[in-house]
Amino acid sequence: MTGFDLGDLTASDAVTAAVTGFFLWLVARTKAKGGEEGTADASQQVVDQMESWTDKRLAENEKWTKRLLNERDQRIGRLEKRVSTLEAKYRAALASIRRLLQRHPESSDAVADEVRNDL
Q: What's the whole-number mean pLDDT along residues 84-95?
């Protein structure tokens, strides 16, 4: 196979590569403009910018993650309530079927196979 296989490249990998490339370019540009005396200051500025950018991304990711977890928890709550309601209705339906079968035992063949064992 010739070339690179980018099939496993994720969006996160692409962003990381782009940010790293940008900061390397910025350092090279700063060194070219500032000479020796400005290199330490420029390097610290780049480090500060990287830390600031990283902190912002982490804060955004944390906010996004919390929102997703909150939405998931709300959905789980709704589903639990729905299951509880359906269980109550199912139990009531089984009780009604039992009463009907006690009054009309000849109708037992009308009971669906899916619920027959639950009676």
A: 95
b/e per residue, 101-115, with b = 16+ CB within 10 A?
A: eeeeeeeeeebeeee
Sign of CA dihedral 61, 64, 70, 74: negative
What are the CA-CA distances from residue 59 to residues 16, 31, 56, 99 (Å)? 16, 31, 5, 60
The residues spanned by each domain of the chain are 11-116
Torsion 53-55-58-60 (CA) sign: negative
Two structure tokens written together for 113: 């196979």
Identify the residue with better confidence: 116 or 10.
Answer: 116
**Higher pLDDT pick, 60 / 31:** 60
Buried b / exposed e along 64-84 (16+ C-beta atoms within 10 A): eeeeeeeeeeeeeeeeeeeee
